[in-house]
Amino acid sequence: MQRFVYFTAHFLFWTVFAALSWMSFSANPLELAFVKSNLEAPVMLILWAAISFYAFYFFVQPLFLDTKKYFTYFVVSVLSSITMSALFTVIFWFSYPVFTEHALQKFSEGIIGSFIISQCGSLLRGFVNWNKNLQYKAALENQSLRNELAMLKAQLSPHFLFNTLNNIDSLIYKSQDEASASLIKLSGLLRYMLYESESKEVFIAKEIEYIQQLVELQQLRFAEKNFVTLDIQNSCSEFKIAPLLFLPLIENAFKFVSNPATMPAIHIELNVQNNGVKLICCNYFVPKNAGTVQTQGGIGLVNTRRRLELLYPNRFNLQVSQTHNMFTVELNIERI
């Protein structure tokens, strides 16, 4: 794509140059007649323009403008314009006798023309450098974002793994069959976290399956079967989302939950529609000290907000609220 843009810029310049040159010749019948009778003359003029243009494009602009030697660049521009004009004036003087009476005028015009053409070469080279720098910075930013997202996802997994292994360890003494089944589920989840999560997006159905298994494994910690309720409404199976995005929000609910008088203690609701996805995660809590406000979230909530800012800028709304003894996180993501 970049090569096409550069080729187009060069092509447009020389097209404009040819058109202006032809208009200049056409405006003067004597010059037009001279060009028609001496077809090698336009070739020499193109050669003169090409030398002026590409000398600055490849050498002068990188040597002086890129290094901010502006005064030296200006001096070189003037001297090179005078030199190029003088050189081709001498060539035309000896090649075409009719040219001698207009030599001084053409010499002056040649200085101006050489200067303008050489500056066009510098201008185009400046555009090329600017575009390359822009692409380079964009590549660096994209790489930085990918690295940051990878670090954020890496911070999510250990906490989940630590809790789940503890739960299965406790289950081994109660029921080895259930512990074995839980290990198989954990293996599937780890496979998802290690491989599927490398994708930029996954189908929401996979993420829902992951959440269901995650909740089942977390439920092992609690004797009450209705401790957790999971309500999933998926009316758009083609919806895609960043993998493991909901994990820290759900993990926080299990991390900070307290035993309530009535169940459920945790309620998770996921609603997937054509225009987006909505997650509501509530958990019952009891403040550690009476009269204080519960602080929940920590690094998990911070990481989630950062991932949302990187992945869904201006397309998400993350609200955290506390009402009585219920801590609620509501996340809405708009679909493009």
Essential attributes:
two-stranded antiparallel ribbon; 5-stranded mixed sheet; Heat Shock Protein 90; rod-shaped; alpha+beta; 336 residues; single chain
CATH-level-2 architecture of the largest domain? 2-Layer Sandwich
Question: Taking Cα atoms only, what radius of gyration do you get, to the nearest Å?
Answer: 36 Å
- The fold-level CATH name of the largest domain is Heat Shock Protein 90
For the record, what CATH class of the largest domain applies?
Alpha Beta
Record field, number of beta strands:
7
Largest sheet: 5 strands, mixed
Overall geometric form: rod-shaped
How many domains? The number is: 2
Structure description:
There is one protein chain. This protein is an alpha+beta fold. It has two domains: 2-138, no CATH class; 174-334, 2-Layer Sandwich (Heat Shock Protein 90). It is 64% helix and 13% strand. It has nine helices and seven strands; from the N terminus they run ααααααβαββαββαββ. Strands 2-4-5-7-6 form a five-stranded mixed beta sheet, covered by helices on one side. A two-stranded antiparallel ribbon has the order 1-3. Strand 4 (266-273) and strand 5 form a beta hairpin. The mean pLDDT is 82.
Layout of strands and helices, then pairs:
Layout: H1 2-27, H2 29-37, H3 40-65, H4 70-95, H5 103-172, H6 176-194, E1 202-203, H7 204-218, E2 228-234, E3 240-241, H8 247-256, E4 266-273, E5 276-284, H9 298-311, E6 316-323, E7 326-334
Parallel strand pairs: 2-4
Antiparallel strand pairs: 1-3, 4-5, 5-7, 6-7
Helix pairs in contact: 1-5, 3-4, 3-5, 4-5, 5-6, 5-9, 6-7, 8-9
